[in-house]
Design a protein that fits this description.
This protein has about 140 residues and is mainly α. It has one domain. About 75% of the residues lie in helices and about 0% in strands. It is built from six helices and no strands. Helix 2 packs antiparallel against helix 3, helix 2 packs antiparallel against helix 5 and helix 3 runs antiparallel to helix 4. The two termini are about 30 Å apart.
């Protein structure tokens, strides 16, 4: 624990595991994104643009990722800042991709995959994995680099 910890005892409890928690949340976000797209396609088929609603598990994982990355920034300044920027980019791309799905449903065209949100969430998964499980490939990485 850092001598000047922001959250005191919470830092002592969460510091060793926050990287793994964020990695798990990032993977859960990718799964929720797939389920959300399936749900949006079904809603658009059944009720059009008015029936389209935000997928609660996806929104919950987005909020938890934002809060977790902000907390991670209090522990690891550089890594937390990079992860926070990536997570916020994913959040904003999700917001605009949902609006794009509503426009597509309104125009009665087939719904496209949320490509920008998929790319952004892939970057979040890769960076969260780099921060948390890099030790698995560190020997190979260090022998090459």
């Amino acid at each position: 624990m850092y001598p000047l910890s922001l959250f005191g005892p919470v830092d002592g409890f969460l510091e060793p595991v926050i990287g793994y928690i964020l990695f798990g949340l990032a993977l859960a976000n990718v799964l929720a994104r797939g389920f959300a797209f399936r749900s949006h396609k079904q809603e658009a088929r059944e009720g059009g643009a008015e029936a389209l609603s935000r997928y609660l598990p996806l929104e919950a994982t987005n909020v938890l990722l934002i809060l977790g990355s902000f907390y991670f920034m209090t522990l690891e300044y550089h890594g937390g800042m990079v992860l926070s920027v990536l997570v916020l980019g994913t959040f904003f791309s999700d917001f605009f991709e949902f609006e794009a799905r509503k426009v597509e449903a309104r125009r009665d065209v087939p719904l496209e995959r949320p490509n920008s949100a998929i790319a952004a969430s892939t970057l979040v998964v890769l960076y969260a994995g780099y921060q948390s499980i890099f030790f698995l490939i560190a020997p190979i990485w260090n022998s090459i680099i």
